[in-house]
Automatic annotation (TrEMBL):
The modification 4-aspartylphosphate is found at residue 61. It is found in: Cytoplasm. It holds the Pfam family Response_reg. This is Transcriptional regulatory protein. The keyword Ribosomal protein does not apply. InterPro entries: 2C-system_Tx_regulators (IPR051271), CheY-like_superfamily (IPR011006), DeoR_HTH (IPR001034), Sig_transdc_resp-reg_cit/mal (IPR024187), Sig_transdc_resp-reg_receiver (IPR001789), WH-like_DNA-bd_sf (IPR036388), WH_DNA-bd_sf (IPR036390). SUPFAM superfamilies: CheY-like, Winged helix' DNA-binding domain. Keywords: Activator, Cytoplasm, DNA-binding, Phosphoprotein, Transcription, Transcription regulation, Two-component regulatory system. Residues 10-126 form the Response regulatory domain. The keyword Transcription regulation applies. It comes from Paenibacillus brasilensis. Signal peptide: none annotated. Its main location: cytoplasm. It comes from the Bacteria.
Amino acid sequence: MNERVLLDIEVLVIEDDPRIAEINRRFIEKVDGFTVCAIATNEFEAKLQLDVLRPPLVVLDVYFPDTDGLTLLSFIKQHYPDTDVIMLTAAKEAETVVQAVRAGVFDFIVRPLVFERLRATLEEYARFQRQVKAWQEQPSTVEQSEIDNLLQNAGTGRMTGTGVGELWAKGIDKVTCDKVLELLNRRGEVTTGTVGNELGMSRSTARRDLEHLVESGDAHHDQVYGTVGRPERIYRRQRGNEQT
C-alpha cells in the first residue's frame, strides 16, 4: 500500500472552552488528511455527535463542568469501540494519565499545545489507520514484524521512543519524570537530595528518574569529591535545554 496515500480522517473535538476548541480545530486541520467534523462543548453534545457522526478519532479534554474526560473515554470505548481517542488537556495528574492509558487512549498530550507534537501523533495515527484498512480490505495472516509495526504505530507516545509503556517497564512515572526534568532545566544542576526535597520524593526514586534522563540524553552527570565522605553525583542539564 502506498504510504503517501492520504486518508480522509474526521475528528470530533470535545472541549468545553470554545476558544481552545477552535485552536485545536485549526491545528488539526493543518495536518494533511484530517478534518474536524464537529465540536462538542459538553456531555450531551458529545454523546449526540458520537451517535450521529461515528468519527474514527476523538480529541478529548479531561475537565468539563458536567462530567470528566475519563468518564467520556470509558463511554466511547464501551459504545464506540472503533473510535480512537487522543487526550489533549491541561491535566497532568499521574493517576489521570495511568487511567487514560489503561482505558486505551491512543495518545495523551498536555497543554500548552505544541503543534509539532500534535502533528507527529496525527501522522502516526494516519499510518496506523492505513495499515488497519489494508488488513481489513485483504484479510490474511500476518507476520510478527507486521504486528510489531502496527503496535508501534498504535499510540500512547510509542513513536517517540520514550513512551509511557517504555517508562513503565523501567518503573518510571512519566509525569514525575517530567517534573524532575523541569526542575533540572530550571536550576541547571541538581542532586538526588535536591530533587527529593523539592519534589517530595525518595532519593532512590529521584536517582532512578535522573539516571533515565541521563540515558535519554536530557542530562549528564559528574562525580564531585568533597573533603569528607563519599563522592556525590551532580546531574546537569544538557546544553540547549536552558529555559527562556
